[in-house]
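re: that chain from earlier
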Amino acid sequence: MKEQRKIPTGKVSRAARFVKTGAKVGGNYLKHYGRKLIDKDATREQLDSENAEDIYNSLSELKGSALKVAQMLAMDKNLLPTAYQDKFAMGQYSAPPLSYPLVVKTFQQYFHQPPTTLFDSFTKNAVNAASIGQVHKATSDGRTLAVKVQYPGVRESVKSDLKLVKPFALRLFNLNERELDQYMEEVESKLLEETDYQLEVKRSMVISEACKHIPNLDFPTYYEDSSSPRIITMDWLEGEHIKEFLSHERTQEIRDKIGQAMWDFYHHQIHHLKTVHADPHPGNFMMRPDGTLGVIDFGCVKEIPEDFYQAYFKLMSKDLVTNDEELLPVLYGLNFIYEDDSEAEKEVFVTVFKEMTSLLGRPFHVDEFDFADDAYFNQIYALSDRLSKMKELRNSRHPRGSRHGLYINRTYFGLYTLLNQLKANVKTTKPDWLGGA
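^ sequence. v structure.
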């Protein structure tokens, strides 16, 4: 993959790139309408493909927050057309890498020496590149290491990038502006944390220590003395990302073993730590033929307030949706409904959220759940599609749902999606060692 020799870091240069991309998108629409004049049966697929290509190419050159938002949107299979999903998903671990001189510059800034001096060996070419940083392979004192290097200017551009990406999200993805504003506020706070690599190292060490007893999980050791605000050094974990892993024949036993480890990992964090690895995309997991699972990235971590936790998991109760006396206070507490809603609005929103929580909570209502059930996921996608078109939701005066739910919902959606890809059958009841709520 072609390397980048520089990244636009100033507000003006980054804004200019967005303007240029906007002009390309506008041109694509004109071409689309021209095709429609010639062929009234012309579909939107080519327009989506052209827009996805132009937007992804621009965001991948800018790196940082804008590419991260695209990556997050790609995790929601019903929010984006397929062309966007496929292209934006590349930002999870296949973005164009930075050239080696820029990597050396970062090491000089924090360690006053190049990586080849700090380590016994260091690959000049990145082995993986994502939205915020890229990974190089190194060795030191007989250890094989993964060294993550943050792209220049990422932290400084978070706020301005999110303002620039908002019009694209509103136009292309058909989102409610109030909900998008709340979404962007939460994303901004998480991205600022995610660009603090020293915070990531501390969280990585705490969470991996707290979860090391979970069967079939593996975590790297982190090395604080060779890490910095923009560099993380950890053990290299062998394994494959899910797409490569599933390109080989895998037994159901191995799929279930990995799926169970993933499920238990998330629920131990949520119920015991009230802190969760909130970025369950394929680039953060390494899968192995023996059924073990490596977890390699704790950049995005969501701390769960106790009041939100209690209310959210009440919604997972199978019987709650049939008991309005208990359900309504929970919906008020989670900002699904508001005091100034009309009775008609309340009836609509209560009906919608009953249907939604009954569907999404289904794995919690049984002792064992088969995530290979594509019919279940098709129901989720169909509901999501229907909700995106509801005028009551699109024109709502309020964002529907607590801001804390944004990352928790994203976490569950990502987890469910990975388990579906694995075709895993998972015991969803809590084992004795897990305990918790």
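The two ends are 47 Å apart (CA to CA).
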